Amino acid sequence: MNPYHLPVDDSSPYYNALAQCVDHWGLVPDKTELIRDGVNHVFATERRDGEPVIIRISDDAVRGRDEVLGELIWLEHLIRHGCTVTTPIPSRGGELLETVGVDEGAMHVSCFQRFRGRQLNPATDAEWNDELFRKLGREIGRIHRASDQMQLPADHDRLRWYEINLGQFPDPLPEIFNPQVVESMRVFTDDWIGRSTTSGHYGLVHRDLHAGNFLVEEGRIEVIDFDLGCYGWRTMDLGVLLFVYYFYPSLQVPDASPELAGHVLARLVEGYREEYTLDREQLETVGDMIMLNTVSNYFLMLPNPEHWQIAMGNPQIPVTESLAWIERLWLNGEKLQVDLKQL
């Protein structure tokens, strides 16, 4: 059975939440399948008129209603300003977000148009090339420019990057974590938390922009899944993709290196600068943004590496080895660097 396309399990609270929302969007349960099981549960389904849609269910224990609604308001703004991003669909009651109760607590349910594009495999897909990087850079720049032109309502605002669940240090620290590693990570993270947030360098960012979160169709790119969107350093949206495919052992593309990462960054920057400004001072932070990704990856995956091994498609280099690599980086005081000479 494909772990990415699991049948809906009617024993889960997510199924309960989904069942309660069938009439809100006129969904067809028999055509519903689970396509992502991670921080959120994401289902592909259809409406009764045949329109293909995506249903995303968020646990209130992870993300509160006001924060999720802020994401949907942000997406509507981006669409009005020409960004190609996932499009929310209001329920029959006119709500962008429906909140339902289950035994385990509250679940927030949203519905999106299903883009007809596909995800690329960076290791094998011929479309993973310089032209794609330029187009992706343009879309990121367009998103950042449009985001600077809005202010979310105070009661629906997004959190800062270190306030979101993914940015939290566990307290108390479970025994599975190496205390020396965590202390080094904490010092590094605290330094970035304390830095001044320069205008134009800092604002709303996607925060999770890897190949699983954009779709491609006939050269057109749609950015999806803004769930981790937050206020952060703009170069975070360049660092995630570089970390995942050019440094992280389990998902590295063939011949990955700091030089190849620098080549990809240069093409992203070319596209970005067609839409928005990006100066040398910002680009010199990319290596540190990649290091911040090692921190979030460590805390997210170490508690349950078996789950992430399956979620990543059983990579040849196991997730446990990648986590051990992260620990060695921090124990040895190493910094990941991108070759900036090509910029």
Automatic annotation (TrEMBL):
Superkingdom, natural source: Bacteria
Pfam families: APH
One GO term of the biological process aspect: threonine biosynthetic process
GO function terms (MF aspect): homoserine kinase activity; protein serine/threonine kinase activity
Cross-referenced InterPro entries: Aminoglycoside_PTrfase, Kinase-like_dom_sf, Pseudomonas-type_ThrB
Kinase as UniProt keyword: yes
Recorded family membership: Belongs to the pseudomonas-type ThrB family.
Record's protein name: Serine/threonine protein kinase
Species of provenance: Gimesia fumaroli
